[in-house]
Amino acid sequence: MSYNIAVIGFGLTGRLAALELSLKHKVTVYESGDEQALDSAGKVAAAMLAPLAESVLCEQDLALLGLDSIRRWPSILAQLDDEVFFQQQGSLVVAHQQDKGDLQSFIQRLKPLAGHHGHRLTGAQISELEPELAGRFNQGVFLPCEGQIDNHAFYQASFKTLKQRNVSFKFAQTVDVDSGNLQQSFDYIVDCRGLGAKSAACKLRGVRGEVVRLFAPEVKLTRPVRLMHPRYPIYIAPKPNDQYVIGATEIESQDHGPATVRSTLELLSAAYTVHSGFAEARVLSIQTGLRPAFSDNRPQVTQQQQLISINGLYRHGYLLAPSLVADAVARIN
Amino acid sequence: MSSLISDSFSIYGEQFTSRLLIGSALYPSPAIMADSIVASGAQVVTVSLRRQQSAAAGDDFWQLIKDTGLKVLPNTAGCHSVKEVVTLAQMCREVFATDWIKLELIGDDYNLQPDPFALLEATKILLADGFKVLPYCTDDLVLCQRLAEAGCEVLMPWGAPIGTGKGLLNQYNLRTIRERLPDTTLIVDAGLGLPSHACQALELGYDAVLLNSAIAGAGCPVTMSHAFKAAVEAGRFAYRAKAMPEKDVAAPSTPTMGMPFWHQDFGIKNKN
């Protein structure tokens, strides 16, 4: 049966929901910004798919959900007319000498995930995986099941494909999901507003993250490198065309203003200490995003009759969204 | 026993029975933070405002802290100059409606060591402005004396640099400060990693400990919070009970002289 469905919010989850639902239903997308959804966390993110590394801090069920999502990404991207960079060649975790203790505790806290686990590496093994890191680190961990995608390319390609599928777009429109008006026009409403859904009833908070994009032709890293840092995990994620995403900070603040000098210094010095080739890199952008999170930092898919909400993906948007969207879509199909 | 149970210490005239002050940073989630704080039995929670950019931006997180119902001790973590801490202390006073301030003024970024000179200067300015200052300081006796002379009723010397989890690196210094400033409330702040470290601080006669990473960075923060609560209680009981003197020569707890000979036989038989 085909339904008339409204998807509210055109960030990462909104795009995934629209892609799945438009295969079978008539979809209208509402978005408060434009087609780029510049305010959405998914636009700014480093777009890591790191279930094993995240298992250090999150519960096992979420990490397993992340593994499930990684399996879904290739078929999602195969629907798109344009190619989107997706990589699953593992990620490398390294630490400077003074952060060795943090690396040890990271290794101890990795949760075994359905047969996937980390491998300790010597300095020589690190340089086999990433020749340009030779001599820089004498220990690390390789997490083979991990990957990443190019989120900017995904944002563009998903919009293009949805337009071709005749999905209707209502940009620059803020809708009142709770008023019940939409329920009269649509069979289902899928609420993907992220932080836009914050209200007295919906106790979301924003967790600020800052991300730097660099153009670094001198650096030839082939997979994401995670550097142990005392406050937050910093990834150096190589994207196509010699671009690198360095991020992200994690600050309990809803300030959406430009990145601070301190955060910028932390991110850039982290990159520079991993590879001195970043010294001559060009800074393409320094962006700030707000991750929507509930107080337990766990995502929620909830349903009230025709209204289905997907929210609270926190720092795990790309890692969890495909599985959460599949859950929401299954409730409709 | 009743005197032990009602045992309390003072922070600028307010009495507290829990000798564990807890931090609010670096937990896996705010929910785990809230559960850890409850498990710790703490009556005071510290919070940092430095990186929130604006008062409104941190509202949701601060509300979670206010919701704990505990006394809030704002800190000036991340400040490097007298001007920065004074400005931030004033902002903290507005946001949390408290005149308490944990004064943290970093002199060396590598080990987050307090700058003793700027700390003393800032302490005097804030005390004159009506603040109740709890300075985070090194374990230097003269610095502690100067801070107490300036009017601090509470001092918080470090056990070790922040986040190192090394425990009490210089027990001699800490013991000396305790002996020389018997009327000042002393709290070991920073550097603790294990409950036994906290227990030691209390055994030395420190009034309390303040910690964050040791709980937030544990594999299971809530369980570690229970462990610290118990350790702090053990250390305080031990201090009040007054430990036996340490000796270099063994002294049997059961004198053998006067033991009936058949009991001694029994022991030998058993051995065979």
From TrEMBL, chain A:
Source organism superkingdom: Bacteria
One Pfam family here: DAO
Keyword annotations of the record: FAD, Flavoprotein, Oxidoreductase
Location of the FAD dependent oxidoreductase domain: 5-326
Catalytic activity: a D-alpha-amino acid + O2 + H2O = a 2-oxocarboxylate + H2O2 + NH4(+)
Enzyme class: oxidoreductase
Gene3D superfamilies named in the record: D-Amino Acid Oxidase, subunit A, domain 2, FAD/NAD(P)-binding domain
Known cofactor(s): FAD
Entry EC number(s): 1.4.3.3
Family: Belongs to the DAMOX/DASOX family.
Name of the protein this chain belongs to: D-amino-acid oxidase
Species lineage: Bacteria, Pseudomonadati, Pseudomonadota, Gammaproteobacteria, Alteromonadales
Automatic annotation (TrEMBL), chain B:
Location of the active site: 102
InterPro entries: Aldolase_TIM (IPR013785), Thiazole_synthase_ThiG (IPR033983), ThiG (IPR008867)
SUPFAM superfamilies on file: ThiG-like
Major location (coarse): cytoplasm
Domain Thiazole synthase ThiG: 11-255
Protein's pathway: Cofactor biosynthesis; thiamine diphosphate biosynthesis
Compartments in which it is found: Cytoplasm
Keyword terms, alphabetized: Cytoplasm, Schiff base, Thiamine biosynthesis, Transferase
EC main group: transferase
Binding site for 1-deoxy-D-xylulose 5-phosphate: 163, 190-191, 212-213
Keyword check for Coiled coil: no
GO molecular function: thiazole synthase activity
Known catalytic reactions: [ThiS sulfur-carrier protein]-C-terminal-Gly-aminoethanethioate + 2-iminoacetate + 1-deoxy-D-xylulose 5-phosphate = [ThiS sulfur-carrier protein]-C-terminal Gly-Gly + 2-[(2R,5Z)-2-carboxy-4-methylthiazol-5(2H)-ylidene]ethyl phosphate + 2 H2O + H(+)
Pfam families per record: ThiG
Enzyme Commission number: 2.8.1.10
Physiological role: Catalyzes the rearrangement of 1-deoxy-D-xylulose 5-phosphate (DXP) to produce the thiazole phosphate moiety of thiamine. Sulfur is provided by the thiocarboxylate moiety of the carrier protein ThiS. In vitro, sulfur can be provided by H(2)S.
Protein family per UniProt: Belongs to the ThiG family.
Subunit details: Homotetramer. Forms heterodimers with either ThiH or ThiS.
Protein name, per record: Thiazole synthase
Organism: Pseudoalteromonas haloplanktis (Alteromonas haloplanktis)
